Amino acid sequence: MVAHAEIRVVHLGGSKINFREPVITNDSRFLLCASGESVKVYSSSSEECVHDLQGHTDLVSGIVRNPSNHLQVYSCSADGTVRLWDFTDGILIKTFIIGYPIYSIYVSENHGGVVFVVVPMANDKSSELFQLVAVHLPLSGDQEVEARELSAVLCDVSPSGAASFGRKGEYIAAVKGLQLEVFFFKNQKSHRFFLKPGNKKGAKNAFTCVSCHPKEDCIATGHEDGKIRLWRNFNQKKEYTYSTLHWHHGAVNTLQFTPEGTNLLSGGIESVLVQWHYTQENQKDFLPRLGGAITHIAVSPDGSLFCTSHSDNKITIIQSCVKVSAIIQGLVKGEGVRTDLTIDPRSKALVLNGKPGHLQFYSLHRDKLLYNLDIVQQEYIHEEGLDQFEVVKAAFDTRGDWLATVEERTQKGSELEINLKLWAYDEQTQSFMLNTTVTAPHEDQIIAMCFSPSPEITMLVTISFDGHFKAWLLADHSDTKEGASWSCDFVGGYHHLKPGCCCFSADGSLLAVGFQEVVTVWSPSWELLTTLSQPPGAIRELCFGRLSCSKYLLGTSTKNQLCCWNLLTCSLEWSTPVDVSLLQADPLSENMAAFCSQSGCSDLFVFKPGEPRPLYSQKALCTGKVQRAVFAPRDQMLESCEEHAQWLNRSQLYFLTQHMDLMTFSTKTEEDRLLASSKLLMVDDSVAVTPFYLLLGKHRQQQEALTNPMAERIQLPQGSIAIKELLYTPAHVLPSASFLCSMFVRSLLISSSSASEEKEPVEEEMESEEEDSEGEAELRDARQDLGGSAAWGPGEELGAPALTKAQERELRRVKHFDHSWLSSVLEC
């Protein structure tokens, strides 16, 4: 089955928020950053995500403010489009189709209607040469507009955004390698300046970043050796000069001038924000210990707020280089994930390695870090070559009451240190507390571990290269005052072979352990039930089927074989030659996902063990091998009608690529639902949209309509346009407050004429009610004369249809009319 276009691979949760420089709005209330295929809008005070601007179909590669409207931003993407957003309401205003993959975007106030983007010199994502071009945005009322009018500005530039506009947009400077190029728009000429690769002291002169002074002709460049050069007189190619500043011992990752140009901000691997005084270059201020290495610096237009992006996927908001006011933490992704991707059964959060020695709990649905759990409980020393404890394994039980972790440390000339820790969930603190620590649980490295899903017992199984697997059992001390404790219940092995993997069945009645080329199946009483053999190659991974496919056991081997055994007949059901790098089972369905490696890329096959045809397949999913994946349960089940997309209805598949990008699959049904929910947020602009309002707002309005029927009749006078204009008029041109107050109060009062008009219908209504009572009495007398049932109600006599009160009232009025004129007509 071929992959369909309705299912797309997207960066949905846990994307990099430090990929490009963030943007602070003019009023410093919001911070915008690129996050996968969307733009996140965060509140700079509460750190909450206010809007998620979705519309791009590929990685967002840049964000800039719209110079002509401070409530709008431009975003660019590798999908070849530039989109204009209203970030306060989260609305897409316009899409400009460029037609080339875009990697950076720049704007200038002096170049109205033009954006500058970095595109490949050849229309190909694999191109290694890039150019800066000016795109003239056409004026059109259409939602999507093609912008094909491009003009080249600079050739051979860096795709990462190493460019900056100079004084009033008169020139733009870009750096790459050992070259600084300045393009002057007035005379349409460019000057290039080169540095030597290095000198005898081993300096690395390569450019890393650039920033132009906003009011003077000065360009600041950062270099790999930690130096900052201030270039002047560069409009004369042969008479340029530069001065050098040096504090960073590593490469200068980013530079940024403040809006007035009084200070220059720099950051690097030291995680220290350095503020250089422009007029007094020897004076500088420091804000240290900000976390990971600083990758980007952004400044608000008024200069009151700074923000720094860090290598640990974090954005720090700083008030005027004095103190940290807020921290927006994304999913921490280091050089590699030692633990598997696991889901916390309680919070439904993704759990994996975070900061050194920690586990991070990350909410995929809210795209927010919940908290970090300190596993090692030792101070981490940032020193290269120092051996320290690392968290390598983590597993949860079915209910989320227990967490098991393994930490290890390898020192030169000494044995491997291993600690097995078991953590109990504490209801009061809403976190995990350390319960038991087992020092040296095995004689060698622990390969894998898993909890038994059986509700009767709480058991953990660990396997190791020492040739044994151990079962750890939770002791029951409910009758005594002692707390819960763990102990080793069983130690097993098979012919001195080294185990490689283990897995419990869905009900916990079977345990499968792979010993090289043999699969052993054990009962809860630790009786060896059977052994299964397969074609040559050590067993790499084992996985039991679920629900209707629970009779199957699947395994992968090092000889590129995927095998399926029938546990009822203890025989091989089928096998296929495929190099499966990762096999993952969906806990809520019979589906299984197999990631296969082929020609440097990873392919995906979703199938049921009992069916020969796969449910879904996609070639060239990503480059490299997929090493980690997990099925995360959905909060709300999708209702997809397409057969090829039904495997995503209950769970969502996340996987981690070779480049540490967390990817998932998005269906058209899910995207339509998100679009509908975003439109729902824009129903009423006068009311603050909060989750509480969305839940109870409509219910509250219905209750008010029922309890207060007069609310529909009596409406307070609305504020006129004149009053609204008075509220926005400067105070020094307004009349006195006493004069305005009397006018405002009179406008709110209800006139006497309208009050008298309202009294008249009330009197008429009272008269009609008296008539109604008389009419009802006459009707009752008539029913008694006819011998009718007293159970009849108005309008139900002899099976007649029921009448409303208004219709009954009209009939009674007709009854009281003088019909004497009719008799005279009949006599004639």
UniProtKB/TrEMBL annotation:
<keyword id="KW-0539">Nucleus</keyword>
<dbReference type="InterPro" id="IPR015943">
    <property type="entry name" value="WD40/YVTN_repeat-like_dom_sf"/>
</dbReference>
<dbReference type="Pfam" id="PF23769">
    <property type="entry name" value="Beta-prop_WDR75_2nd"/>
</dbReference>
<dbReference type="GO" id="GO:0032040">
    <property type="term" value="C:small-subunit processome"/>
</dbReference>
<dbReference type="InterPro" id="IPR036322">
    <property type="entry name" value="WD40_repeat_dom_sf"/>
</dbReference>
<feature type="domain" description="WD repeat-containing protein 75 second beta-propeller">
    <location>
        <begin position="341"/>
        <end position="660"/>
    </location>
</feature>
<dbReference type="InterPro" id="IPR019775">
    <property type="entry name" value="WD40_repeat_CS"/>
</dbReference>
<keyword id="KW-0804">Transcription</keyword>
<keyword id="KW-0690">Ribosome biogenesis</keyword>
<feature type="region of interest" description="Disordered">
    <location>
        <begin position="755"/>
        <end position="801"/>
    </location>
</feature>
<dbReference type="Pfam" id="PF23869">
    <property type="entry name" value="Beta-prop_WDR75_1st"/>
</dbReference>
<keyword id="KW-0677">Repeat</keyword>
<keyword id="KW-0698">rRNA processing</keyword>
<feature type="repeat" description="WD">
    <location>
        <begin position="200"/>
        <end position="231"/>
    </location>
</feature>
<protein>
    <submittedName>
        <fullName>WD repeat domain 75</fullName>
    </submittedName>
</protein>
<dbReference type="GO" id="GO:0003723">
    <property type="term" value="F:RNA binding"/>
</dbReference>
<dbReference type="GO" id="GO:0045943">
    <property type="term" value="P:positive regulation of transcription by RNA polymerase I"/>
</dbReference>
<dbReference type="GO" id="GO:0006364">
    <property type="term" value="P:rRNA processing"/>
</dbReference>
<feature type="repeat" description="WD">
    <location>
        <begin position="53"/>
        <end position="95"/>
    </location>
</feature>
<dbReference type="InterPro" id="IPR001680">
    <property type="entry name" value="WD40_rpt"/>
</dbReference>
<feature type="repeat" description="WD">
    <location>
        <begin position="245"/>
        <end position="276"/>
    </location>
</feature>
<feature type="compositionally biased region" description="Acidic residues">
    <location>
        <begin position="760"/>
        <end position="776"/>
    </location>
</feature>
<dbReference type="InterPro" id="IPR011047">
    <property type="entry name" value="Quinoprotein_ADH-like_sf"/>
</dbReference>
<dbReference type="GO" id="GO:2000234">
    <property type="term" value="P:positive regulation of rRNA processing"/>
</dbReference>
<keyword id="KW-0853">WD repeat</keyword>
<dbReference type="InterPro" id="IPR057644">
    <property type="entry name" value="Beta-prop_WDR75_2nd"/>
</dbReference>
<dbReference type="InterPro" id="IPR053826">
    <property type="entry name" value="WDR75"/>
</dbReference>
